[in-house]
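hiii, so i know i said id send this last week but things got crazy w the move. better late than never?? heres the sequnce for the chain we talked about at the cafe, plus the structure i predicted for it. fair warning i was half asleep when i ran it
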Amino acid sequence: MTIRLIVVDDDPLVRAGLALMLGGAGDIEIVGEGADGSEVAELVDRLAPDVVLMDIRMPVMDGLEATERLRRRPDAPEVVVLTTFHADEQVLRAMRAGAAGFVLKDTPPAEIVAAVRRVAAGDPVLSPAVTRQLMTHVAGSGADTRRAAALRRLELLAGREREVALAVGRGSSNAEIAATLYMSVATVKTHVSRILAKLDLNNRVQIALLAHDAGLLDDEERT
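okay and structure toks below
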């Protein structure tokens, strides 16, 4: 399977470097490039990519707003945001908007290629450690309100669905969840799909962030 990719960055040198690097992977095809978030909708309509690799800071429409608009569409491609910061409130907002992960601009080429492949396969590119770092970055702003809202949403889940949601929040893969909860990988996938539908979420990253917002993973660490 060939992964159709669009690269969006306002720096032409960055776009050229990414296109050269990613175009060398046999299973990735660069089908288009954009210089601003305002171009994303038209590019997606015309080129039908699987993944959009998008800079988070651009002058006319930034990657955050472009991600929010894109992920509200049906059958939207996955989004990986590009950033120069490990912990940044805009990165966290992009994750909440539905981005499947982020990569730093100084990430080694092989890791960026691997990130695109993972996201195209439905796996997020966001480690539990990075998630906690991002959450801590904005923990002082409305944390209590977010926790109450997240707990209310998680009440919609059945018992096993809640267990799977917490495991996703810990960063566990489907295989790891299956082994821990004594169920098949297919059953785990079914639970994840139901969680996404019940909570109106886009991907596993948003499940993980909701679990962090609810404070349930912090509670586990204290016990």
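btw The mean pLDDT is 84. thought thatd interest u
miss u guys!!
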